[in-house]
Amino acid sequence: MTEAVYRVALADGSFHLAIGTPEGGPVALVEGLSLDELLASPAAQFWEWLLAAPRRELPEPARVVAPVQSQEVWAAGVTYAPSRDARQAESAYAAIYGAIYRAVRPELFYKSSGPRVRGPGEPVTIRSDSTWDVPEPEIALVLSSACEVAAITIGNDMSSRSIEGANPLYLPQAKIYDGSCALGPCLVPVPASRDMSIQLVIRRGDHIGYQGETSASSMLRTFEDLAGWLGRAVTFPVGAVLLTGTPLIPPPGFTLADGDLVSITIGGLGTLTNPVRKLDCGDPPASEAARAETAT
User: Fold this and answer.
1) Domain that holds residue 188
2) How far is CA 181 from the centre of its chain?
3) 241: which strand partners?
4) In terms of DSSP bridges, do strands 159-160 and 133-134 run parallel, antiparallel, or are they unpaired?
5) Residue 172 pLDDT more than 90?
6) What is the spatial distance between Cα 236 and Cα 68, in angstroms, rounded to a whole number?
7) How far is CA 18 from CA 73, 261, 269, in A?
8) What long-range pairs does 29-35 form, CB within 8 A, spacing at least 24?
9) How many domains does the chain have?
10) Which residue, of 38, 65, 92, is where some domain finishes?
11) Whole-model pTM above 0.70?
């Protein structure tokens, strides 16, 4: 059974690392280590130090939070053919996404600061000035300060398709806002094979609004390639997290609604579940409201 590391909050307001399994949750606190300290060191030492560190009984209550501390979260786009196709279909500038998919240099963008990331059970959000919104289930790379892959986890890259579709230069507004990123529930070692299943289930009340499953093996780029590009011109003293793109995108007729429940399951990593809330940003432009009518 794979050992996993969690980040937990205790009743006294302190945060700690904990060891457990993806299936069973955290079972013991790790003493004397923080995620910032671990990721400031070489990736080869990450699991060695964790597994050798002293442990003590996990007190109650202990709440699992996002497995990120001071790390920035970045993201890669258009790394799967379904992602390319969906963005070409939604955009008034479709050719850009075909060029990104074929290019040597990947699309990389800033997603979130560590403290803004939502953890398991915490709400992710959709913008009220957007009319077409989806979650994007992704494998997230946890990188050392040298941009080496130390571990992986599940990521939810919440996205406004109506805003990005109107103009690719609106990408920051489509991707970066309060509640737009969730990570968890735990960190696990990088598997030998990338043939991991990725499942997305969106529940709306008592019904399933969308369900899909595929494999990460169809990703065009390698983990190491993406991490290497991120580290070319940016330094990360305490490491970083890099979302690697999504192969699962709900169809044009579907958009998230307030109260939906998003669950992402990746083989060997567990399940990340978050409720959806609407973030008040004002009304959408009339052209986007019209786009919403044709998408529903």
Assistant:
1) 72-295
2) 6
3) 73, 142
4) antiparallel
5) yes
6) 14
7) 21, 26, 15
8) 29/55, 29/56, 29/57, 29/58, 29/59, 29/62, 30/5, 30/54, 30/55, 31/55, 31/56, 34/69, 35/7, 35/67, 35/68, 35/69, 35/71, 35/238, 35/239
9) 2
10) 65
11) yes
User: What per-residue confidence (pLDDT) applies to 131?
Assistant: 95
User: Taking 60 as the threshold, does the pLDDT of residue 45 lie above it?
Assistant: yes
Q: Are residues 8 and 108 in the same domain?
A: no
Which among 46, 65, 84 is the end of a domain? 65
Q: What is the pLDDT of residues 49-73, one digit of tens each?
A: 999 999 999 999 999 999 999 999 9
Q: Do 9 and 85 fall into the same domain?
A: no
Tens of pLDDT along 243-262? Answer: 999 999 999 889 999 999 99
List, as own/partner pairs, every contact residues 289-294 make where C-beta atoms lie below 8 angstroms and the sequence separation is at least 24, other chains included: 289/131, 291/131, 291/132, 291/162, 291/165, 292/131, 292/132, 292/162, 292/255
Q: Token pair for residue 282?
A: 């004002």
- pLDDT classification of 288: cutoffs 50, 70, 90: low
**Would you say 150 and 239 are in contact if contact means Cβ atoms under 8 Å apart?**
yes
Contact 157, 76 (CB under 8 A): no
Distance, in Å, from the CA atom of 230 to the CA atom of 228, rounded to the nearest integer, reads 5
The mean pLDDT of 94-104, rounded to a whole number, is 93
CB atoms under 10 Å from CB of 275, counted, come to 16
What is the rounded average pLDDT for all residues in the chain? 94
